[in-house]
Amino acid sequence: MTVLPSAGADSVTAADASGGSDGSVIERSWKTPDAFAVIFDRHADDIHRYIARRLGSDTADDLMAETFVIAFQRRRRYDVSQAHARPWLYGIATNLIGRHRRDEARRLRALSRMASLSSGREYGSPADGVVEELDAGGTDGALAGALAELPARHRDVLLLVAWGELDYAEAAQALGVPVGTVRSRLHRARTKLRRALGGPEFTTSTVPRMETDHG
Q1: For the chain, which terminus, N or C, has the lower number of CB atoms within 10 Å?
Q2: What is the pTM of this model?
Q3: How far apart are CA 166 and CA 46, in angstroms?
């Protein structure tokens, strides 16, 4: 799949295009389309890795390419005051992943079954590292099965933060929701994971006050 137009008379060298923020590069690509290749070079590996963790490497190849095709087509809509394009790109990728919800859930359940059969491992307590393992990219055993049962909107937030390494504001930008909604969904996702894996419930004294979930 062709991600960017071929070089022509208006092309720029990598040295010319590679400097500056993502926003400045995207703005430059409005008149010089080949400049957008810098955005691909900066972020393609991370986007591919994120999609592969969720859907597998075969699907990731196509969806990563499609993410950048869509980004290129929409580059004139990008708010160039935003220095970093990662939230924008992760948002596009997450929307594409949304077309494969059933595939993702099936994959997670299969990972859970395979891990259980091969090792017999079970989590004794989520306090022993469930969220930490997720943050490290793990989906071993029962954790994969618990992820499969999360509502899609909760799984999206959780994995954007854990695997995409977005902060709350960036996740909110990626999903087009308020930061309070990100905090609420993330809290609920982590609570459901711990509950599904037999861990202790949160108490009102240990849970920070969450803002209203707006969707």
Answers
A1: N
A2: 0.75
A3: 12
Counting Cβ atoms within 10 Å, is residue 58 exposed (0-12), middle (13-18) or buried (19+)?
A: exposed
Give the Cα separation of 84 and 21 in Å (integer).
7
Q: What is the pLDDT of residue 112?
A: 67
Q: Are 51 and 97 in contact (CB under 8 A)?
A: yes
Provide the mean pLDDT of the chain: 79
For CA atoms 114, 117, 119, 121, the dihedral sign is positive
Look at the alpha carbons of 170, 171, 172, 174 in this order and tell me if their dihedral is positive or negative: positive
Place 9 in a pLDDT band, splitting at 50, 70 and 90.
very low
CA angle 62, 59, 70 (to 5 degrees): 35
Our CA angle for 192, 195, 198, nearest 5°, is 150
Q: Contact at 8 Å (CB) between 93 and 64? A: yes
**pLDDT at position 205 over 70:** no
Q: What is the DSSP string of the chain?
A: ---SPPP-TT---HHHHSSS-HHHHHHHHHH-GGGGHHHHHHHHHHHHHHHHHHH-HHHHHHHHHHHHHHHHHTGGGS-TT-S--HHHHHHHHHHHHGGGHHHHHHHHHHHHHHHHHHH----S-GGGTHHHHHHTT---HHHHHHHHTS-HHHHHHHHHHHTS---HHHHHHHHTS-HHHHHHHHHHHHHHHHHHTTPPPP-TTTSPPPPPP--
